């Protein structure tokens, strides 16, 4: 899978089960009517169940200049969740999930379905709100390293 180039995102949630954010690349658009996103999360990580319990997530697409944020939310540096969130500027739209103010785009979603496939949760979210950032090069992950779109 390391040979599959993908955009880099931070998926976040907040609600009764707690706040969480992780870096992901296994994401795709499922439908445009209604706007629906698919995200895959490793279910072997004990805290990823918070997304399903909260029933909401925000998918924040990162630009090339946000590599350090991606690394922090992937667990590098061993930062606690609250310390990871202190690295960016966050607000909320409709669901209460944290939205990165300067992301290329943020999709605020309510979970409409989940499946377990092998080691991952496959989570489908209906987009309830959208935040568009300034145009910039997208952060891409390929061959276990970061690149920009067009490299």
From TrEMBL:
SUPFAM superfamilies: FMN-binding split barrel (SSF50475). Residues 1-148 form the Flavin reductase like domain. Keywords: Oxidoreductase. GO terms for biological process: pyrimidine nucleobase catabolic process. It comes from the Bacteria. Gene3D superfamilies: Electron Transport, Fmn-binding Protein, Chain A. GO terms for molecular function: FMN binding; riboflavin reductase (NADPH) activity. This is Flavin reductase.
